[in-house]
Amino acid sequence: MPGLKTIIALSFVLAVGFLLVILSCALWNQYYPLLVVATYVIAPLPNWICSRCSNPDDFDSSGTAVLDLGRFCTGFFVLMGIALPVVLAHSALITTGAMVMSIAGGLLIYGTIISFGMFFQEESDF
């Protein structure tokens, strides 16, 4: 069971991630990098929804297609969170500095969301 130090450390990393994304917007007066926050917040949802819909007690492989769909959608959103700032920088809508800060902040945000899920998931004993 994770303790208070884990919660504080993950909260600090999440705050640094949000700070990087907000600074990537505010320093250059371009607010397109805020779209990265939306993609990283939405990213774990397909995996969570599809894991709830599949039945792990089945012996056949019918539930694995739903899990694979959730993993594919989650991977798509994570890749979109990295590729979106690159495309915006390539089209000159944001600067390269904003792109780097946005990608770094987005990865910190997504990593923290995944870490919270790993540390605080309930283990069921049968």
UniProtKB/TrEMBL annotation:
Statement: the UniProt record of this protein carries the keyword Transmembrane: yes
Membrane topology note: Multi-pass membrane protein
PROSITE patterns linked: PROKAR_LIPOPROTEIN
Residues spanning the membrane: 6-24, 31-49, 69-88, 100-120
Gene Ontology biological process terms in this record: late endosome to vacuole transport via multivesicular body sorting pathway
Keywords: Membrane, Transmembrane, Transmembrane helix
Subcellular location: Membrane
GO cellular component: Vps55/Vps68 complex
Pfam families assigned: Vps55
Source taxon at top rank: Eukaryota
UniProt similarity note: Belongs to the OB-RGRP/VPS55 family.
PANTHER family documented for this protein: LEPTIN RECEPTOR-RELATED, RH04491P
Name of the protein in question: Vacuolar protein sorting 55
Organism: Coniella lustricola
